[in-house]
Amino acid sequence: MDIKDIAKSAKEASLELLGAPSELKNAALKNVKENIERHKNEIFAANKKDLQEAQTLVDKGEISQSTYARLKLDENKMRDMLKGIEDVISLDDPVNKVFWTKELDEGLILKKISCPIGVIGVIFEARPDVISQIASLAIKSGNAVILKGGRESNHTNAAIFSAINEALENTLNFPKNAVNLVFSRDDIKGLLELDEYVDLIIPRGSNKLVKYIQENTKIPVLGHASGICHIFVDESAKKDLAIKICVDAKVQYPSACNAVETILVHKNFPAIEELKKALCSAGVKIVENPADFSVEYGDKIVSLKIVENTEEAINHINKYGSGHTDSILSENKDSVDKFMNYVDSSGVYHNASTRFSDGFRYGFGAEVGISTNKTHARGPVGLDGLTIYKYKLFGSYQTVDPYAKGEKTFTHKFI
Predict the structure, then answer these.
(1) 37 in Cβ contact with 144 (< 8 Å)
(2) Cα–Cα distance between 65 and 57 in angstroms, integer?
(3) 81 φ, ψ to 5°?
(4) pLDDT tens profile 311-355
(5) Facing residues of 113 across strands?
(6) Which residues, in sequence order, are CB contacts of 159 under 8 Å at separation 6+?
(7) Angle, CA 160 vertex, CA 158 and CA 165 arms, to 5°
(8) Which of the 8 DSSP states describes residue 174?
(9) What confidence tens digit (pLDDT) does each residue in 269-282 have?
């Protein structure tokens, strides 16, 4: 099928999923989890092939080392994939939640109720485990999804998708074409033009990818262009613990979008040299006062700047940050309150590593990505971020005319 036919069939599947019971969605997820586990050796073999081909691309300078690192799928990532699906199964169904009920008048009841978004297109680079995360969240939230991965993970993507698709086909009454995978760049271009069928695009990848998508579609785009995350080490921070957090936030997974890229240190912090030494010992290159603070390194490199006070740290973050995740390490309540309130990011932390910004760690089961948008979903986007709402009005044969004439009045009270 061409991309238009895929999108059209996904739209049809999304309409079938609107009223899908929780039992059906959970049964599908259980089958998906078991089938991925059943085929894991085939998936590992496919990933090994991707890694071999990707190394050639790294050697040619066509992809970065950080992209290569994201591509690898090992036993730990497989375990997390399967656990993520289990967690999604255990979560409450996000559809048909009643946010509030209001009486407009006697016998005229309005309810605001959650519902699926519809068809979601997800375009991502490397990270083949993304397929299972997004597919499981889409299934549970009643959405159809069209996935497009990077060329460097084609073999792994195909193997995981095959396991998912086989499981869904063997789930009685589950709609066909709810989860779809496309491969070519032409498919991306075509997908971005299909606002008739696709309701939301979620890009996961480089700044260049996200900007391209934002500039070439009428479809709403949810995501983040970059992950310029900061840690501000206040003068009152417990030095050994603060150093430990800074190292963790950079070294634990340097290519992640929630890894720290800039460390701001209060001029009176008593262990500045110890912090630098610890970072260097962990293999981190320190760039002091770089010409450009808006660089996302995605590697063991970090910018470092000495600041006068909390206000300077906040102003720096709001100027150069990407609205992703920023943290203050401090024992001063006034500084903490000021930082937490005035830093304009989707995640603002106190005495914690920026690496906690993750749907799995937030208990969302998995995530479709991190959003720095100021729309219906912000931060790690899990199940709730894949739902929107509708208003359901339950009446008893009322007409508007008596209210327009002033013969009847609304009560407008929450019940």
Answers:
(1) no
(2) 10
(3) -60, -50
(4) 999 999 999 999 999 999 999 999 999 999 999 999 999 999 999
(5) 98, 390
(6) 39, 42, 43, 45, 46, 47
(7) 90
(8) P
(9) 999 999 999 999 99
